[in-house]
Fold:
Amino acid sequence: MPDAPSSSALPPRPVRAAGLSVRWRLTLSYVALVAIAGAVLLGVVALWLLRYIPDGPVYSSDPLSGESWAPNRTDLIRAFVPAASGALLGLIGVSVLGGWILAGRVLRPLAIMADTARAVGDGDLGARIALPGGDDEFRRLADVFDGMLDRIQHDMERERRFAASASHELRTPLAITRALLDVADADPDPDVPQLLVRLRAANERAIALTEALLLLARLDARPPARVAVDLSLAAEGAVELLHEVAAAHDVRLDAVGDPVMVRGDAALLDQLALNLVQNALVHNLPSGGSATVRTLRLGGQGALVVENTGDRLDPAVVATLVEPFQRGAGRTRDGAHGGSGLGLAIAGSIVDVLGGALELTALPAGGLRVEATFPLE
Structure:
């Protein structure tokens, strides 16, 4: 039985019939324009000049030599038409050469774009068009194409890092599960309740990580519609849901601020606030810490600001915390913090999808300030 075709296989390229190149079509267009212009000029001469010259014998009277002969319409046509036709044919020949050269110069940016696209298709994501010169239609198209390539290269590099990190993170709970099962299998009298507790913890960790990965995939695949949403409701809901978590971590959690209407999606803003507040609680001081959630108008936009106490952070590390699986101490996990390392990554994706901006700042006394801003309604 033949294998079913892979859904990820590239579609076959269409087979196109051979035809004239764009350069030849432009050249022929120039030639046709020159030929029509020459024919119109000759027609104007024939209709508006030769029509007033009589046909037949024409004589003029000369006082000195007497009667003399003058050319008539037929004589002028016989003398003019061959010379005009030759000039028109020569002009058409020159227009072929000139049109070919001009078409080549006009289409040169397209050839550069085609070479760049071919290089990118062959795997060189760093190739760019970078057309020199002033602003015109081709250069605007080239700049748009280069911008698209920048975004594609950035997204693909991020996806490679994300896939590698996700594989590493998912391997951990699976390895823990296998180790627990191996130990239980080798133990003649295993502690089944304790084994079930550990297996459940490993399974919950894998489920949480998988759900976070699915959420990131959905955010990238289908941007939501934006409607008027009260940002303060999302903040209050997150504080209410995580109140017990704050108590368990011995963190004082406060929420302040007035209603702020922004354009967004209620479910995503709830998830954003939940992730930011949870991150502020988990990555805090061992005891006696604090976290503050505020909503306010900031610079003509609505802002959700979450600040928390904690260890001092290197500003260079803070700039990478929105990358998947990044934590304040790098790509590590400790028993106190746990977490999948996707909280701020999901927050960054939500902010991007909703057309906002996310800014992370290391506080001088320790801890982190996260500011998410959105357009006001």
Q: What stands out?
A: The chain has nine helices and nine strands. Confidence is low (pLDDT under 50) at residues 4-8, 329-338. Strands lie at 58-62, 66-70, 227-230, 251-257, 261-264, 289-298, 301-308, 357-362, 368-375. Residues 137-186 form the longest helix (50 residues).
